[in-house]
Structure formats: C-alpha cells, structure tokens
Amino acid sequence: MAAKNETRGSSKPPVKESPTESRRGAQQERTAPLDRDVIARRAYERYEKRGKTPGRDQEDWFDAERELKGGGHAGGHQA
Q1: Which of 19, 30, 49, 66 has the greatest CB tally within 10 Å of its CB?
Q2: Model pTM?
Q3: Residue 45 pLDDT greater than 50, yes or no
C-alpha cells in the first residue's frame, strides 16, 4: 500500500526581518511605542488650544509625540 502524501494547511517559512526592522523592533521595545490614538488626541488638543487655526497639523503631531515621550513642551507655555 502506498503512503498518503498529506498536506496540512499552508506552511510558509517564517519571514525574516531585515537588519533595519530588527533594530527598529528592539528600539520600540526599549522606548515603549506610543499609541497613535493618544498622540492624535494630544495633537488635537494643541490644535483646539490654538483656536483651531489650520496648517500646523504636522507641528502639532510632532510636538504632541515629543511631549508624550517626555521631551517636554515644544512652543507655547508649560502647564
């Protein structure tokens, strides 16, 4: 009797990370990545505090990210 050749599901080989991705992953573990929603809320608060003046969304985002990472306030007054 011939042996059955069974295939069980799709067994793909594990995806290897590039050295850049490996370093990025290690860095994220050390710095505990911030949740995008938390940054977005803080950036929006900055936008509202400024009187909802458009055109500074990237500045608000980067400042909020820096503030939440513990880099302090960028611009404006500190609370």
Answers
A1: 66
A2: 0.50
A3: yes
